[in-house]
Amino acid sequence: CETCSKEEAKYRCPRCIKYSCSLLCVKKHKLALSCNGVRDKTAFISVNEFTDLNLLSDYRFLEDVGRTADAAARHPTMHSPATKKLLYCLRNKARKCNIDLRTLPVGFTKRRENSTTFNCMEKKFYWHLKLVFPHSHAEYTLKGVPDDKTLADILKPYIDPVESDPVVCQRLKIYTMSPQSDVQILMKIENRKQNSVRYNELDAGRSLLDNLKGKIIIEYPTLFVVLKTLKNDMVVLGQDASEPTENSDSESSSLSSVEEGEIRDSA
Predict the structure, then answer these.
(1) GO:BP terms for this protein (predicted)?
(2) Distance CA 177, CA 235 (A)
(3) What span, in angstroms and rounded, lies between the C-alpha atoms of 136 and 174?
(4) How far apart are CA 111 and CA 115, in angstroms?
(5) Record: fold of 76-227
(6) Which terminus of the chain is less hemmed in, N or C, by CB atoms within 10 Å?
(7) How far is Cα 36 from Cα 257, in angstroms, rounded to an integer?
(8) Max CA pair span of the chain
(9) Stretch 40-66: mean pLDDT, rounded?
(10) Which of 107, 104, 165, 118 shows the shortest CA–CA distance to 140?
(11) What is the pLDDT of residues 151-202, one digit of tens each?
């Protein structure tokens, strides 16, 4: 057992492949790693490890995606003039700010979660925002974040040793104890193939709007907060020796491949 190291393991977590000996240890490992115990159907599997079971799993996954997309297309609010007008207005305002905002069909998780609005009087966005802290296995959802707020101010309630909430501070201890210069904010580049995931590094001193300009956003931004001194598998665009530095929105990719990536990520 990888939790208590005392008893013989009887169970294996489908999500993180941790071995446990009892229900108590299963609950402990889920709490410690913020693991939901649900297998990641979109996890990358090499050709050498690919089996008939993986093929069957992928086939069922595609069937589920097809049913979800069909149900979403039949949803009454999908064809509501008010809904279409609201989404068109949101995308149009984002386009004027040089942001490629893309929305998913009704029924997808990110579409249901998204609470992003645009205030016409103030002429600014109030974003639905997700913060992910990989080193602490934690994530938080923010609603109504003004687009003129800097990333540093957005992160203060979470990783600032003085201003952060005591409970949050304890959970994100590894971040609060690290110097601010070690904190790196990344955002996934959406228009790349599944096996070549790259991230853009954002500027904490600039506003959320400035950081989102020139980028593709699927429903709402998801920011990954990492520490430079700790190893992680997130490759920042331009830092891979095998590829040159280039702007994300200059990369050429077909619309079908982007839509496929959106469906896999959101399902």
Answers:
(1) box C/D snoRNP assembly; maturation of LSU-rRNA from tricistronic rRNA transcript (SSU-rRNA, 5.8S rRNA, LSU-rRNA); snoRNA localization
(2) 24
(3) 7
(4) 9
(5) Ubiquitin-like (UB roll) (3.10.20)
(6) C
(7) 29
(8) 63
(9) 86
(10) 165
(11) 999 998 888 878 777 888 888 888 888 888 888 899 988 877 766 788 888 9
Sign of the alpha-carbon torsion through 188, 189, 191, 193: negative
pLDDT of residue 128: 93
Q: Is the pLDDT of residue 67 over 70?
A: yes
Residue with tokens 């149009």: 92
Give me the mean pLDDT over the 120-138 stretch.
90
Sign of the alpha-carbon dihedral angle for 33, 29, 44, 230: positive
Question: pLDDT band for position 250 (50/70/90)?
Answer: very low
Domain chopping of the chain, boundaries:
11-68, 76-227
Share of the chain above pLDDT 70, in %: 84
The token pair that represents 9 in the structure block: 């393991």
Task: For residue 175, give both structure tokens.
Answer: 């971040």
Using alpha carbons only, give the angle 27, 138, 26 rounded to the nearest 5 degrees. Answer: 10
Task: Take residue 252 and report the two structure tokens written for it.
Answer: 């050429």
Residue whose tokens read 């609005």: 117
258: amino acid identity, one letter:
V
> What are the start-end ranges of the E strands in the chain?
11-12, 19-20, 100-102, 117-119, 124-133, 138-146, 183-188, 199-202, 216-218, 222-227
